Amino acid sequence: MAEIEQAVKRKASFLQYLGADKLRLYSGIVLMVFLASHLLNHALGLISLDAMEAGRTVFLSVWRSDPGTALFMVALILHVALVFIKLVMQRSVRHIPKKEMLQILMGLAIPPLLILHVIGTRVAHEIYGVHDSYAFVLFSLWIAAPIQALVQSFALVFAWVHGCLGLHFWLRLKPWYSQALPYLYTVALALPILALSGFINGANEVEDLYADAAWRDAFFASLNLPDNLVSWAYTTRDIGLRGMLVALVILGLSRVFWVIHFKRKKLITVSYPDGSTVAAPPGSTLLEISNLGNIPHASVCGGRGRCSTCRVKVLEGAESLTPPSDREIAVLNRVGATAGTRLACQLKPENDLTVVPLLPSKSTPQQAFGQPGYLQGQEREIAILFADLRSFTKFSEQKLPYDVVFVINQYFRHMGEAIEASGGHLDKFIGDGVMALFGLEDTPEVASRRALEAARAMSAELEKMNHNLKSDLPSPLKIGIGVHIGQVIVGKMGYGAATSVTAIGDAVNTASRLEALNKEFGSQLIFSKQIAEKSGQEFPDLEHKEVMIRGRDEPLTVYILENAQHLGSKETV
Fold it and tell me: Does one domain contain both 472 and 540?
């Protein structure tokens, strides 16, 4: 048993070196191109049998040429061999997602369904020189052995769905895929329907022609059929089916081997944040262990090491882990993962472990793409802007709900556009207040200048809004804005749909207090001395004072403007 295990490990290392997943993917793409062109050829039957034969001439010029034959055979052998080895090495099949299990079962059904068709066409052509025209194929399936028409229809559907699922599992990680999906789905659904319709239409035409004795004689004379073709085809099919049965037995024995292998291993324990623990044999991937214990764990790519959504933070036991492979490192670098992060589908713990999954179990493909490092939590020096409408509660009490919602949405739109146009990140709307962050991807100096520019732009937008809505407002809306800069913790925080990029820290509280001070001074904008210094601008004629901020021990020097639009104008210098 130990020798078998070592052999499997050596084979796995060899396949990883070759890039087995990529070879399986690329070979599958070649087979899908072959199948799609074959279905298009079938669809020409909706026109006529002659159209099918014309399309077949083009099809054969590609796929029966020496390069086309070599490409197809290499792709077929590689794909079948790599899939078979992957299934043999699959440690557990109990928690394979339903879609992937459907793909696997359909893939296993394709060879026995197609073997007689392949023998009667390509193999018979190569060995006996049989002219396997469309008329011959349709006669064989529709007239000579009608049951085979049903068998080949199932084979067509199974092969197409198997391939489409494989492409879906690959493409769902592409940023453009969600937008292209409706169009690709339409093509994927229409092509087999057109192919089956063309097949039936062509078969009916052959059936009509077959009633003509002269056509029938000419047809058989053109096929170059040997006398023993039928018996040879079925004998060859039986040999192939026996080989497939042996392969299935090997797959079954591999399941027995892994069960025995797991039972002989000393179990390890993996602990999760909610207090759950799962005991599993060492050598299983962390993702398999999570599935074994019914622990919800994200894995958009199905554990193929492509998407990074299964990544975890290792809290305890990291010292006993083997270093990540080049493949795992590449994926982690792509998403800007921090130290101690590993991919659950690639990590195979040999000792007890404590981990925290970093993404929700229902993560989307978009979360697999590279994202800024600050989304996972970073300490950064950024500028924070708070703004709040004055006396809006009194206004809302005097207006109908519809009018209140209309005005507040106009306000949010104008303020949001001003902030985003100035390069800020709109954090959240709080009642009739706004919070914005500057410097998530900029230097503190640039962030300070952009925050001040946003304040000036917000004041201008409010004036524009007051002008546009003067007939709906009893009096012009007024706003208070506070801006400060400092070290804060930035990251994606929240739960479910309420998750967003935000910041927490003393600087955030200070910016909020500055906004509130506008009420005391009757001003529109108050910003701290730190913002002024970081921005590289001077404000010698601007009113400034030292104020005490709740929560701070030292006074803070602030600049005060009655109208933020005057910021940077001659009135402030």
Answer: yes
> Residue 321's domain is classified under what CATH number?
3.10.20.30
Q: With cut-offs at 50, 70 and 90, classify the pLDDT of residue 569.
A: very low
Q: What is the domain range of residue 448?
A: 373-572
Instruction: In whole angstroms, give the CA distance from residue 239 to residue 355.
Output: 51
Please enumerate in sequence order all residues whose Cβ is within 8 A of that of 87, keeping only pairs 6 or more positions apart, or say none: 104, 251, 254
Residue type, position 544, single letter: H
Of the pLDDT bands very low, low, confident and very high (cuts 50, 70, 90), residue 126 is very high
The segment with the largest mean pLDDT, out of 68-72, 225-229, 376-380, is 68-72
Q: Is the pLDDT of residue 82 over 80?
A: yes
Strand pairing partners for 279? 269
Domain boundary among 349, 368, 387: 368
For the beta sheet containing 268-271, the strands, ordered from the edge strand earlier in sequence to the opposite edge, are 277-280, 268-271, 353-357, 311-316, 341-343
Report the distance separating Cα 257 and Cα 264, nearest Å: 11
Count how many Cα atoms sit within 13 Å of the Cα of residue 486 in the half-sphere of its side chain: 18
- For residue 320, the SS3 value is helix
Q: Read out DSSP for 522-564?
A: T-SEEEEHHHHHHHT---TTSEEEEE--TT-SS-EEEEEES-G
96: exposed, middle or buried (C-beta count within 10 Å: 0-12, 13-18, 19+)?
middle
The pLDDT tens digits of the residues spanning 239-292 come to 999 999 999 999 989 888 877 776 666 788 888 887 888 888 777 888 888 887
Q: Which residues of 168-207 are buried (b: 16+ CB within 10 A; e: fewer)?
A: bbbebbeeeeeeeeeeeeeebeebbebbbebbbbbbebbe
Q: How many CB atoms lie within 10 A of CB 112?
A: 16
Of 240, 261, 282, the one marking the end of a domain is 261
Q: What is the mean pLDDT of the chain?
A: 85
Burial 506-521 (b: 16+ CB within 10 A, else e): ebbbbbbbbbebbeeb
Residue 269 CA to residue 281 CA, distance in Å, equals 9
Alpha-carbon distance 209 to 219, whole Å?
10
| pLDDT greater than 70 at residue 14 | no
Strand-strand pairing, 425-430 and 378-390: unpaired
CA angle 154, 159, 164 (to 5 degrees): 125
Task: Verify that 364 and 377 share a domain, yes or no.
Answer: no
Question: Using an 8 Å Cβ cutoff, are 436 and 490 in contact?
Answer: no
